[in-house]
């Protein structure tokens, strides 16, 4: 782990050097994310101008869920999103050859090599939103203590699901369609599970559990007795890592270098 941490530090250093070479783009990335956050918050606020509750949640509870998912999305955009797009190009251009020759996990290098420093400053905004709406919900000390680990688990879970989807690029000629499909699935996770109809809710909870990303941890924070979905989320996370390892091995056997 120490070796991987040192390598990741170099990845981060390189990304910061590149990002600071284009300062205007750096600023625009910050502004773009702020607009995205505002759109999500205003959408929920607009809905609650006409209703008092949605399902079992009131306005503040729903807005905290939205803030939680904004924080997950912020981590995703900062630390991983770039890599999914580069993976498609690496496969087509044969750059994956050089990654496979490196003395470390190719999965780690492919999906965690690049980050987006321009979005990192918005961590102040995402945590500010969670703290504001958490206070509005009347959170106590144990709920605040649960927040950081639950946020990290949700982030790890959605990344695991997206890696599974992205590995399908080994068998497809064009990977951009896979990335757009992956992004559309992300949109489902931005809403709690109870807003969906029965068939959609069951499919996206048990068959492809994207709805667990936000609903499972936030339900647990609201009520510790509502732990079953979170336990299911942990089970699926363990299974996803097994599936990733198996699919990655199959994909490498399928892979034919574009550079050879």
Bin the helical content. over 70%
Sheet with most strands: 2 strands, antiparallel
Helix/strand-derived class? Answer: mainly alpha
- Termini gap: 33 Å
User: What form results from the Cα inertia axes?
Assistant: globular
Question: What can you see in these coordinates?
Answer:
- The chain is an all-alpha fold and 260 residues long.
- Helix content is 73%, strand content 2%.
- The protein is built from twelve helices and two strands, in the order H-H-E-E-H-H-H-H-H-H-H-H-H-H.
- The protein has helices spanning 2-19, 23-47, 59-79, 81-93, 96-100, 106-112, 123-136, 141-166, 176-189, 198-207, 212-222, 228-254; strands at residues 53-54, 57-58.
- A two-stranded antiparallel ribbon has the order 1-2.
- The longest helix has 27 residues, at 228-254.
- The radius of gyration is 19 Å and the shape is globular.
- The two termini are 33 Å apart.
- The mean pLDDT is 89.
Layout of strands and helices, then pairs:
Blueprint: H1 2-19, H2 23-47, E1 53-54, E2 57-58, H3 59-79, H4 81-93, H5 96-100, H6 106-112, H7 123-136, H8 141-166, H9 176-189, H10 198-207, H11 212-222, H12 228-254
Antiparallel strand pairs: 1-2
